[in-house]
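Q: Okay, next protein. This is Glycoside hydrolase from Kibdelosporangium phytohabitans. I've checked the sequence twice, so it should be correct. Can you predict the 3D structure?
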Amino acid sequence: MARELVATARLWAARAAVSELGVHARHLRRLWARPGTLLGVDGWPPTRGERLFGRWNYFAQAHLIDCLVDAQERNPTAARATSIARIVRSVRLRHGRRWVDEDYGDAAWLGLALMRAAQYTPVKIAVRDIVRGLRGAWTDHAGGGLWSRADENLKSVRVNGPATILLARCGDRVDMQRARAIAEWMEDSLLDEITGLVWVGLHVNLDGEVRETIKEAYTFIQGVYLGVCLELAAGDPVWAERAERTIIAVSEHLANNGVLRGQGGDDGGIYTGILARYLALAALRLPALTGASATGMAASHVAERLVMTSAAAAWRNRAVARGGPLFGPDWTIPARVPRSPRHKIAERELASQLGGWMVLEAAALLESSH
């Protein structure tokens, strides 16, 4: 049995590695041909605008960094460490030599990725600037939470989830208190008591009245909320219980025959990969957080099974393209190879390739723990 687990671990690591090679071959190129730069091109085959980074995706770059850090933790190399540092520098250069985006959610996701990349390149100033911006996004409208943008009326988990994790990881007492407040606000305002899932967010009037609850339960919303639960569970066991609840709810409502549900193209290609990442972390951490309780162990097993079944489906339905495997946004459907830059399918998009790569890295992480 032990020998079989080792063999499986090597198998998933190899699959994650070839997925990384595919993304590198098709999507990574220098920014405006400048030496020492590197960014993810949004589409493949790329349009002229995509090649010149006239069109680029700040959100996707954050998750590209995260994927590369996953790969570096799996199998460290000097070349990959250099790539991580170059992408971090290039994000700032392409973004007008600033870190903070007008979209607080994108900024929070980048902040989380930069924290993980800190051992490969200096990021202290970047994280400080992002955290400062997030602190200013909190208001008491609708009971609390962060705005999605300074000029919008939306308060969503897309912002509040990664911001909570980022603030909790800063180590500052005030930031930790704010993280707990945001997390409780999400629990009180956005939990669907029937399913155990978390809704997207609230549209809020300037007088603080809630105009509309956006009653959609995207996969990445559950993923980042699960990450919030794991981050806060060490100091409060109620958050471990909420993590268990979230895992079971995902299993019952957001998976088809054990495969996590796809969320379409554009940024949606990344969404289910984010959920897979946090499910893998939950599978590893919950037993210790719950004292190996029966419910904690059961939820851990469910989380692991969801990741492994989804990774197997993504790999089974991959297409063969230049450089390596190519993934679609729905891992239960065979992926298609785009014919040209004008072939508008999700498989062209960097987001879908990152989503597939993420679930394979999550599977490799779980197998290496056995």
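A: Here is a summary of the prediction. The beta strands are 28-29, 39-40, 154-156, 201-204, 210-214, 255-256, 259-260, 319-321, 324-326. The CA atoms of residues 22 and 65 lie 15 Å apart.
Q: Noted. On to the next one.
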